[in-house]
Amino acid sequence: MTGENELDPVIHAPARLRVVVTLATLRDGDNLSFTRLQELLELTPGNLITHLRKLENAGYVTTVKSGRGVTSRTSVSLSPQGRKAFDNYTAVLRQLLDSASTNGTSPH
Amino acid sequence: MLEDQDMSVQEAAAVMQDARTRARKELVVATPLVYTAWGLVWLIGYGAMWLSVRGQHPYTGPSGISIAAVFVLAGFAVAAVLVIASKAAAGIDGQSVRHRRIIGSTWATGYLILLIVAPAISNSASTRTLAFISFAGPVVLVGLTYILAAALGRYRPPFALGAWLVIAGTSCAWLGPAIILATCALAGGGAFLLMAAIETRLRAHDR
């Protein structure tokens, strides 16, 4: 996680932001299959794996593999730490948008 | 899409809004539609039965056509709810799936009990008792199911609906058969339609 007023670089990338937003929509204790997540985000499997790995390394996402062969399933969920990081990201983003609209500037 | 593509704050807000809208559309059950379906079934179904018994002296029960209409409407509502729920549940596993199983089996068991008890006591019970069990029983049962769903999902609006249905259904114990049907149509069906409007507003506000 980053400082109070900085956008978390782990989340602040279009694809990862979409992954986190999608997983944050789930209720606590729920997970989403890799296939469904891929379908929703319209990403290639390789691309999604790369982003998930970054999020997983930061402790924001948990992936669990279950079953074997055709019944195998990879479940993806947002960890409590990931949910907290996303809440913080949303709050910082809102602050930056507010200050940008007050100052009439376009922050990066 | 580039892996670590730089984006401005405005772009991030747009990406977030777009992803949130899509995720909610695809992964969250469209409860306003569910409430509307059941609201119409109860309003039209109970309403049709009430119209068929209004003015009956002595009371002989709802007409066969109105009872058949209830079953047809309920069949459509069940099918619609199953389609809506299974679309939203695709790919999701975990606690909410277990909760849905508990809620579904509670509701089904309750209905089964009502379907067994009503015919079993039909010869010995009074018309009023039978009307209460057959017409208000499902309202109380659905109310209790919504209270259970609210407790499991820690979400208040279904609790309010459930509590209202339990109160409305229980109050039918003091009413005659025709008024029970009118109460179920208006207080039951009306409550579902009101909940549909409230949920729609809450969701629009949440965006």
Mean pLDDT of chain B: 92
Q: What proportion of the residues of chain B form beta strands (DSSP E)?
A: under 5%
The biggest beta sheet of chain A, please? 3 strands, antiparallel
Low-confidence stretches of chain A: none
Number of helices of chain A: 4
| Alpha carbon gap, first and last residue of chain A | 19 Å
Radius of gyration of chain B: 21 Å
Topology readout:
The complex is a heterodimer of chains A (108) and B (207).
Chain A: H1 14-25, E1 30-33, H2 34-41, H3 45-57, E2 61-66, E3 73-78, H4 80-103
Antiparallel strand pairs in A: 1-3, 2-3
Chain B: H1 9-27, H2 31-53, H3 64-89, E1 92-94, H4 95-121, H5 127-153, H6 156-171, H7 177-206
Helix pairs in contact in B: 2-3, 2-7, 4-5, 5-6, 5-7, 6-7
Walk me through what this model shows.
The complex is a heterodimer of chains A (about 110) and B (about 210). The mean pLDDT of chain A is about 90. Chain A is built from four helices and three strands; from the N terminus they run H-E-H-H-E-E-H. With about 110 residues, chain A is an alpha+beta fold. In chain A, strand 2 and strand 3 (about 75-80) form a beta hairpin. Chain A has a single domain, classed as Winged helix-like DNA-binding domain superfamily/Winged helix DNA-binding domain (Arc Repressor Mutant, subunit A). Chain A starts with 13 loop residues before the first helix and ends in a 5-residue tail after the last helix. In chain A, strands 1-3-2 form a three-stranded antiparallel sheet. The longest helix of chain A has 24 residues, at about 80-105. Helix content of chain B is about 80%, strand content about 0%. Chain B has helices at about 10-25, 30-55, 65-90, 95-120, 125-155, 155-170, 175-205; one strand at about 90-95. Chain B has one domain. Chain B is built from seven helices and one strand; from the N terminus they run αααβαααα. In chain B, helix 2 (about 30-55) packs antiparallel against helix 7. With about 210 residues, chain B is mainly α. Classes of the chains: A alpha+beta (about 110), B mainly alpha (about 210). The interface of A and B includes residues 31 and 97 of A.
